[in-house]
Amino acid sequence: MKIKAGQVALVTGGASGIGLGMATRFAELGLKLVLADRDEDRLASAAAQFEREGVTVLAVPTDVSDPSGMERLRDLVCERLGTVDILCNNAGVVSPFRPLWTNPLEDWQRVVDVNMWGVIHGIRMFVPAMVEAGRGHVVNTASMAGLGVIPSNGIYNATKHAVVSLSETLRADLDGGGHDIGVTVLCPGLVETDINSDPAIAALIPEGSVFLKPDDVARQVVAAIERNQLYLATNAGSDALIRMRQDRVMQEAGQPL
Ligand SMILES: NC(=O)c1ccc[n+]([C@@H]2O[C@H](COP(=O)([O-])OP(=O)(O)OC[C@H]3O[C@@H](n4cnc5c(N)ncnc54)[C@H](O)[C@@H]3O)[C@@H](O)[C@H]2O)c1
């Protein structure tokens, strides 16, 4: 889809990090913004900054894991701005690193609720209107953890694989329907945001690792939307990680005994 001034972009988790980076890039291109985030203070300060810059912004405190909150978001957006042209299901959380079988139930529920159900609710709430309008683009934020496995990060890995699968299926279901609706699954590696600032997580990141900035990711997202690119792995070296897994699958599963 060609991105044009005046279109509406909705970003969940838009008050910080990658979400704020995408919103900033969209605003620079003249788009109107809908920011949805559960962090009300950060949301208000991000919205105030955009307003000072003359950007049209609707900021809606929202928990993406709450179906009724997502319905309220949809209704507000429909009433104030009409259809969403670009939907970024981006809000996400991490869980403590530990062996899969030792994760407490609350961690499973909390992370699945945000990372997987948040994306599902975003699709449920906003894609029907896109289909009706016959145009739009959906960007779902997964991770390289959705295309491979980070040891001791099982809940996160599972939810991000789910986001990849939801995106692939959405694309397949839309294809051939005569609409101009694209889908991108955003798979970042390390990006300089708060999600990595937890000391327990920071301690696990190898020294010398290269982090992208949210703006580097946002620029690639814009290009991917315009090319209707399904898979977007933003960090250098991602291809080697993907190939390692594919090679193993082909070696072990591609040769029936
Ligand atoms: N930073 C990285 O290295 C990295 C790498 C791969 C994938 N990601 C993914 O990128 C996305 C954005 O993360 P980030 O790195 O910008 O981190 P971040 O913590 O800066 O931003 C996440 C935002 O989501 C919001 N949020 C969390 N739970 C929410 C909920 N239930 N409802 C609404 N908003 C909620 C937070 O308040 C925050 O503003 C996440 O899905 C994350 O998994 C990040």
TrEMBL record:
<comment type="similarity">
    <text>Belongs to the short-chain dehydrogenases/reductases (SDR) family.</text>
</comment>
<protein>
    <submittedName>
        <fullName>NADP-dependent 3-hydroxy acid dehydrogenase YdfG</fullName>
    </submittedName>
</protein>
<dbReference type="InterPro" id="IPR036291">
    <property type="entry name" value="NAD(P)-bd_dom_sf"/>
</dbReference>
<keyword id="KW-0521">NADP</keyword>
<dbReference type="InterPro" id="IPR020904">
    <property type="entry name" value="Sc_DH/Rdtase_CS"/>
</dbReference>
<keyword id="KW-0560">Oxidoreductase</keyword>
<dbReference type="InterPro" id="IPR002347">
    <property type="entry name" value="SDR_fam"/>
</dbReference>
<dbReference type="GO" id="GO:0016491">
    <property type="term" value="F:oxidoreductase activity"/>
</dbReference>
<dbReference type="Pfam" id="PF00106">
    <property type="entry name" value="adh_short"/>
</dbReference>
